[in-house]
What we know:
Number of helices: 8
Structural class: alpha/beta
Order of helices and strands: HEEEEHHEEHEHEHEHH
Number of strands: 9
Distance between the termini: 37 Å
Radius of gyration: 18 Å
Helix content: 25-40%
Strand content: 15-25%
Bound molecules: hypoxanthine
Largest sheet: 5 strands, mixed, barrel
Shape: globular
Amino acid sequence: MPNKDLSARLSEARDAIFKRIDIQPEVGLVLGSGLGAFADSLSNATSFSFDEIPNMPRPSVSGHAGRLVVGTVSDVPVAVLQGRVHLYEGHSPDAAVFGVRLLAKLGVFAVLLSNAAGGIRTSFKPGTLMLIRDHINLSGINPLVGANDDELGPRFPDMTRAYDPRLRSLARDAAADIGFNLEEGVYTAMLGPSYETPAEIRMLRTLGADAVGMSTVPEVIALQHMGVRTAAVSCITNMAAGMTGEVLHHSEVEQTAESVRETFVKLFHAWIERIGAADWASTTGRFRAKK
Ligand code: HPA
């Protein structure tokens, strides 16, 4: 079964990283398509190419560099995955979530994810940022299928608060700090790599979806399994198929993500600062790592 030696593979990767850093990361980040610039804004950065991390799967999509950067943001120690592995690349579900499991193994108590997504809610525009309130998993895949690794988490993890209410509230406060309108909605995961058809988008809207993409959901499930608080922001890079007269291109996804780069970096900085200042010890769930 796939999970047999997972804990050992994660420990090997973690040990290789801890050999080269002397800070304890508290918050993890995953940067989606075209949003990787955030990693360049860290202080005291130590960077690892995915090639240097034992057992780490490598992404192949343009816009995904494949680096882990450890450093600080407003004095909060963070570990950032710049680039991710998608299911549509043909990787196993286990491989697709190895990176976030590694963040958990490094000891972070929260992970903030980002992605590029198609907008389904008609009031959205390319460049809208949407805090994910909940998801619909239509990828057909769940990374926890197979023997459960009891060392990592329970067989049947709860998903009621997968998108942590406290982290979301801090994101809204951070957006207010910088005077930015942060939308909130439901993200649907599709397997990809083809974009959706207009009929599929009409179906998704009927189901209550506000945005659609090809990532994030497997990672959130794996993190929830491991008891790590998660939150995520979608960058609406294009309106979903059939909503405008246009066809969809990956280059449009990258261009829109690039155009919101500054706002995105500012929002995440303000968010992490607020997470660092909050008192987590009195709440349930995984606490902040002790210094
Ligand atoms: N559909 C699915 N994934 C996406 C889209 C989309 O329209 N845009 C960016 N990622």
